[in-house]
Design a protein that fits this description.
Elements (H helix, E strand, L loop, with lengths): L1 E4 L4 H13 L5 E4 L5 H10 L7 E3 L5 E2 L2 H11 L10 H28 L11 H25 L11 H17 L8 H10 L12 H7 L16 H6 L1
Parallel strand pairs: 1-2
Antiparallel strand pairs: 1-3, 3-4
Length: 238
């Protein structure tokens, strides 16, 4: 199998964290360079969509959804189990996966509509960006609540799951790539993040300097993240 990835980017990082946690080493990982046309050409030569991550299996199947890749790999590599053994455990994991995936989606809306990274590629829209920022916070609140319900240290309880990989990739990308911190009032989520950062899987390859130059600093660091109108001042200043 071959995994095509930008190994620092939001959605590929889910797969990278998962592979590290599972100690899967027999997949050929093709690290692409977003700043290099020849590198991206390699991806487009095998996938007309040109998106990452993409997993190409031995029989030629191309899987382009990060969630589908994670569940496919979980079937191929069932140990250690990272989705749950019982129906109840699997439902709890998939619920957390859904919330974590929505968190990434809303952050993406915020970034795409407010960050200079995307200014030359699509229309910037402060109203849409405000919506994304507030929705991102709402999903973080939901993650904090499920940590309280499941009594951690992981999102669904005592065992790490795919949901943790998805959430970690999102929170880490927001914090290290865009400079968006977790709201301090979400104490359980902050504790989970600090705990997860100590795991070897949390190591992220360096972000390209051109990306950081334009991406980092999306928020106003003086913003009070306890406010209900999170994102309004940030986006208007972007």
């Amino acid at each position: 199998m071959k995994l095509y990835e930008l190994n620092w980017a939001l959605y590929p990082r889910r797969i990278g964290i998962y592979l590290s946690e599972k100690e899967i080493t027999d997949i050929d990982r093709v690290a692409l360079d977003a700043m290099d046309a020849e590198s991206i050409g390699k991806l487009k030569a095998v996938s007309s969509l040109g998106t990452v991550p993409m997993l190409q299996t031995e029989d030629g199947l191309k899987i382009r959804s990060s969630i589908a890749i994670l569940e496919y790999l979980e079937d191929r590599y069932p140990q250690p189990n990272m989705i749950g053994r019982s129906s109840a455990e699997q439902a709890r994991t998939r619920e957390a996966m859904s919330i974590a995936d929505e968190t990434a989606l809303q952050f993406g809306i915020w970034a795409h509509k407010a960050s200079p990274v995307f200014a030359g590629m699509e229309e910037q829209n402060p109203t849409t960006a405000r919506f994304g920022a507030k929705a991102y916070l709402k999903q973080l609140e939901r993650l904090d609540l499920i940590l309280a319900e499941n009594q951690g240290p992981f999102l669904t309880g005592s065992q790490i799951t795919i949901a943790d990989c998805i959430a970690m990739a999102t929170v880490q990308f927001a914090a290290d790539g865009y400079g968006v911190p977790l709201p301090g009032r979400l104490e359980l989520l902050c504790a989970w993040y600090e705990f997860f950062k100590q795991r070897p899987s949390a190591y992220c390859p360096p972000y390209p300097e051109p990306f950081l130059t334009h991406a980092y600093g999306l928020p106003d660091h003086g913003l009070d993240w306890s406010l209900d109108d999170i994102g309004w001042n940030v986006v208007l200043a972007a």
